[in-house]
Amino acid sequence: MDEVLIANWNEVVADDDLVYYLGDFTMARNAERYVERLTGIISFMAGSHDRWLDEAITRYEGDIWSKHRFIPPLYEIKHAGKHITLCHYAMRSWPLSFHGSYQLYGHSHGRLEATRQPRQMDIGVDCHSYYPVLLDDVLRRLDADEEKSLD
Q1: How far apart are alpha carbons 99 and 106 in whole angstroms?
Q2: Total tally of structural domains belonging to the chain
């Protein structure tokens, strides 16, 4: 399983791509053995299984962690002029949720799809054929979902 996930990741993520990882990266203590094999610049958010983050992460010049970031459990970004809230967990409301913003989450393994809010998506790889999803593709799908709901 690990080898397939690594191969799928490296198939779609380029060395200079920014990746937001919304938790549950690994239950193993030595996350380095995976991170060193992945392309991209990763922003890690702690998930419910990421006990490895409790370990001291070194950040000396040239080590595996020096190019990656660790982001808080609720993180907001703007992309393509849209406000997006990132969280490991799905939320009923989020910053600017009543003003057209989006919320992306993991944790749920697709179990919330039938009840998710508009402009909200589970971006876990197990919901997307075990591949990371591109943010532009996510926004296109959410925009299309919203257009369908208006019909």
Answers
A1: 22
A2: 1
